[in-house]
Specification:
The complex is a heterodimer.
Chain A: E1 9-14, H1 15-25, E2 27-28, E3 31-32, E4 37-43, E5 48-62, E6 67-83, E7 87-107, E8 112-118, E9 123-128, H2 130-140, H3 147-165, E10 167-176, E11 189-190, E12 192-198, E13 207-213, E14 238-243, H4 245-262, E15 281-283, E16 286-296, E17 299-310, E18 313-328, E19 331-338, E20 342-347, H5 353-389, E21 407-412, E22 417-422, E23 434-457, E24 464-485, E25 492-498, E26 506-507, E27 512-526, E28 529-543, E29 547-551, E30 561-571, E31 587-595, E32 597-600, H6 606-618, H7 639-652, H8 657-668, H9 670-677, H10 686-694, H11 697-715
Parallel strand pairs in A: 10-11
Antiparallel strand pairs in A: 1-13, 1-14, 2-3, 4-5, 5-6, 6-7, 7-8, 7-9, 8-10, 12-13, 14-22, 15-16, 16-17, 17-18, 18-19, 18-20, 21-22, 23-24, 24-29, 24-32, 25-26, 25-30, 27-28, 28-29, 30-31
Helix pairs in contact in A: 4-5, 6-8, 6-11, 7-9, 8-9
Chain B: H1 3-12, E1 17-19, H2 22-27, H3 29-38, H4 42-48, H5 50-56, E2 59-61, H6 63-72, H7 81-89, E3 96-100
Parallel strand pairs in B: 1-2
Helix pairs in contact in B: 4-5
Classes of the chains: A alpha+beta, B mainly alpha.
Chain lengths: 716, 110
């Protein structure tokens, strides 16, 4: 088999890496093809309906006809037909094979060739599992649809959907300028590229080959068919990068010499053969008459001729050296081994200095030169050629960190220089099957029921003050939208509520109705604080295909403020519970809080006074202005933070706890009640956990000090 | 028999070239160069220690000739015999091959 198949440069990317590139970049129906993912597409040819597919795995085959096949494993899939008659089949599993996906390169008009996969003419096949076949046969029995026609409908719909995806770019972009010699630095520029599959029966030995021509004179070279197996050796995420001797010579070796001699890699024209037309160049006191490179197994041969003249002598000779390249922890390491030069010296007169003039400088000079060349080659390869070889794509690939991490070994044969490595691609963590309830509680009607004046002294700095208040009865509506991800669709939702933290659940039946919750802890805010009692509540509900709406009955404010848990589960078209891929029941929940009664103390700035007093009482007499405390100092307040605050106050166990909580409740109003009524507030373990998580000893001591100061001032 | 004694024997059969002065030496330059060429590593041995080589190839320098040479080439006064013997006895192939086209820089007669 051929390593280079006549091309100047070859980048090979393993099947695994291509699969990961597709997983992170291919969009199928607007969804990233990173399993698990789900697809919904219409059925319209012969029957009308919808198919919903949950893809659990994606495998890629790189075929010898330069097409790609995608195999999508699926389960929890459903097909729903509405015409000519209603029919729903679920759950279905099996695999879908998408074949004849064309591999292409697209010119973006800016000399960039973008690798692309085109699904526009792809063919599809559905392979049902035995269980799925049984399910379909059972469901279509007695209808005008047979198993075969059902499968045909599904395949036609899938083919139409897949072909509609069209061409999709893979983030592999190469700079290509036809008719011009390419380069490795400052970035990889090619004269021509071809993208082909390197097939194999085993997926782990398949690869994608980027076959490149660097030199315009080699434009017609290359036959990718000679590449019959990949050179990749890495077991995972493998890639390799190979350079042919002629490309190495022209684009790395000669520029490296020019750089070593003139300081400018572009001055190849000033070099002698085999790089340029010059008769020789002087370096280190000797004249290099010619210099050539050739690849051998394990090393690069460097051969050349040299001359040196001086008083009474003329010396000329040949030299031979070897450059070996190895991959070290910090990059590509060149190692130079120079044979002693073979030199003829013609002497016109005796002079002992001829030894010094010829023997030392020629050897040392050559060694120095070849080392400089080798270092430049290693640097160009590592820092520019490799780093930029996959430029323009794969933003998640840490190639900028090269060398050391991505490329791990280098090998040399007469065919080419190959760098082996890996191209790890970050795959976002897999999504999980979920039901989601998203919504909120809004006040739909508010009616003032009473008003008055609350006279109090929040702190001595403010003194006695009248705070006008109003109390309102509120009708509220809790609306939640239900969505499902990676679960069998369509599904039927089943809602239930619990007012005792999930111990007992009450199912909501039908599409609407009224439920009664008994023994619910209910709060009623007052200007001086709040009251608490067990109360019965009547809640109206309305269920639709998209969600649920619950409404309280404020009953002139007597219904008060209370909370309960809402839970939803689902069943599939067979009435079986919807589960995730592991057989676990999928559910979602929300904590609903109705505030049927509200006291507004804002008109005279009670909350402002409360914050002012807290800051006044806790600030240092001569220090900087007080920083925000561990509990909220502005509206709107965060209920979680407020709950933490309440727990911290309780945990301190100081005598003024009750008064602090009372005054805080007045300040925070219903937010305070929501916090203490929340499900989180009813978890006994939370207090300890919360203290451990958020309040270390120092923080707790600071909070304690503030609260003690606060309570002392309140008591004075 | 040592290599040195073999060389001496080889050249002792040739007519001795007697050199009385620097100019005398240069008059015999062609013949001397020919003799040196026939000695393995001869040119290199000449560079290392001309006097020992002259002796080995049957060139006898007078005291005056030696003094004149040392006057023209002061380096000739401080030559070591050890490297000469080492090179003469070495069987290694030399990476640097010397080709002698002249003996000493020509001087005008003062």
């Amino acid at each position: 088999m051929s390593l280079m198949s006549g091309f100047d440069l070859l980048i090979e990317i393993s099947n695994e890496t291509i699969r990961k590139l597709l997983q992170t970049n291919l969009q199928i129906g607007g969804v990233s093809a990173n399993p698990p993912f789900e697809l919904s597409f219409p059925i319209s040819d012969g029957a009308a309906g919808t198919a919903h597919v949950i893809v659990t795995d994606l495998q890629v085959d790189l075929n010898d006809d330069d097409t790609i096949s995608l195999t999508l494993m699926f389960d929890r899939t459903s097909v729903g037909i509405t015409a000519p008659f209603p029919l729903a089949v679920c759950p279905l599993d099996g695999n879908i094979v998408i074949s004849d996906v064309k591999l292409e390169t697209i010119d973006d008009g800016n000399s960039n060739q973008q690798v692309s996969v085109d699904l526009g003419t792809a063919t599809v096949a559905i392979n049902w599992s035995a269980a799925a076949k049984q399910e379909i046969t059972k469901t279509v029995a007695g209808t005008a649809v047979t198993f075969a026609t059902f499968t045909t409908y599904a395949m036609q719909a899938l083919a139409s959907f897949v072909q509609g995806i069209g061409a999709q770019n893979v983030p592999l972009t190469f700079n290509v300028v036809s008719g011009q010699d390419g380069s490795f630095t400052p970035f990889l520029q090619l004269e021509r590229i071809e993208v082909h599959c390197i097939p194999n029966v085993e997926r782990s030995k398949q690869a994608l080959g980027i076959f490149g021509i660097l030199l315009a004179s080699n434009d017609s070279n290359g036959d990718h068919n000679q590449k019959t197996s990949t050179a990749i050796t890495a077991p995972n995420d493998g890639v390799c990068f190979s350079i042919a001797p002629v490309a190495f010579h022209s684009r790395l070796f000669c520029p490296a010499i020019a750089n070593a001699i003139t300081g400018n890699a572009a001055n190849v024209g000033q070099l002698p053969k085999t790089c340029g037309p010059s008769s020789g160049f002087d370096t280190q006191g000797v004249t290099i008459k010619s210099i050539a490179d050739s690849f051998a197994d394990g090393h690069i041969n460097i051969d050349g001729s040299v001359s040196k003249s001086g008083f009474c002598y003329d010396a000329s000779g040949t030299f031979h050296g070897k450059i070996e390249l190895s991959m070290g922890p910090s990059g590509l390491i060149p190692s130079v081994d120079m044979d002693k030069p073979d030199i003829d010296v013609s002497i016109d007169c005796w002079g002992f200095g001829v030894f010094v003039a010829v023997t030392g400088p020629i050897g040392i000079g050559l060694e120095y030169l070849i080392e400089k060349i080798a270092e430049k080659i290693a640097t160009d390869l590592a820092n520019d050629a490799l780093k930029n070889s996959l430029r323009g794509g794969i933003p998640v690939v840490p190639l900028s960190g090269f060398p050391g991490t991505s490329f791990s070994s280098v090998s040399l044969t007469t065919e080419g220089l190959t760098l082996q490595g890996s191209l790890p691609i970050f795959i976002p963590s897999a999504a999980i099957p979920t039901l989601n309830l998203n919504g909120s509680v809004i006040t739909t009607k508010s009616e003032e029921k009473e008003s008055g004046v609350y006279s109090t002294t929040v702190c001595p700095e403010i003194g006695a003050k009248d705070y006008h208040y109003s109390a309102y009865a509120q009708q509220q509506s809790a609306s939640y939208q239900l969505t499902g991800a990676l679960i069998t669709q369509p599904f039927t939702a089943h809602y239930a509520v619990s007012a005792d933290n999930g111990i007992h659940w009450q199912s909501l039946t039908g599409v609407s109705g009224t439920l009664t919750l008994k023994g619910v802890t209910t709060y009623h805010p007052t200007p001086q604080g709040f009251t608490s009692m067990q109360q019965e509540h009547s809640i109206a509900y309305s269920i639709s295909d998209t969600g649920i709406e619950l409404t309280n009955n404020p009953n002139n404010g007597e219904d008060g403020n209370y909370g309960f848990d809402l839970r939803v589960t689902a069943t599939d078209c067979n009435g079986d519970p919807v589960q995730d891929g592991t057989g676990k029941l999928v559910s979602a929940g929300a904590a609903v809080n109705f505030e049927g009664y509200r006291v507004d103390l804002s008109q005279d700035g009670y909350f402002h006074d409360f914050v002012f007093c807290k800051n006044q009482m806790t600030k240092s007499p001569s220090g900087p202005p007080p920083k925000p405390g561990p509990y909220p100092v502005s509206m709107p307040v965060d209920e979680e933070l407020l709950l933490t605050y309440v727990r911290d106050v309780l945990a301190l166990g100081i005598p003024q706890t009750d008064e602090i909580l009372r005054i805080s409740q007045i300040a925070y109003g219903n937010a305070f009640l929501r916090a203490i009524a929340s499900p989180a507030a009813q978890k006994p373990g939370s207090l300890k956990t919360r203290a451990l998580l958020t309040a270390n000893q120092q923080q707790l001591a600071k909070i304690a000090l503030e609260l003690i100061n606060f309570s002392q001032r309140l008591g004075s | 028999m040592t290599k040195q004694s073999q060389t001496q024997q080889k050249y002792s059969s040739r007519p001795l070239v007697k050199v009385g002065s620097f100019f005398d030496l240069m008059k015999h330059e062609k013949e001397i160069l020919a003799r040196i060429k026939r000695v393995p590593n001869g040119a290199q041995l000449f560079l290392v220690h001309p006097f020992l080589l002259f002796k080995d190839i049957g060139v006898e320098l007078s005291q005056r000739a030696k003094q004149e040479l040392q006057q023209y080439e002061p380096g000739l006064a401080a030559l070591s015999a050890a490297p000469y013997r080492a090179l003469k006895n070495s069987k290694e192939k030399q990476h640097i091959r010397f080709h002698l086209r002249g003996l000493f820089e020509r001087r005008t007669k003062s």
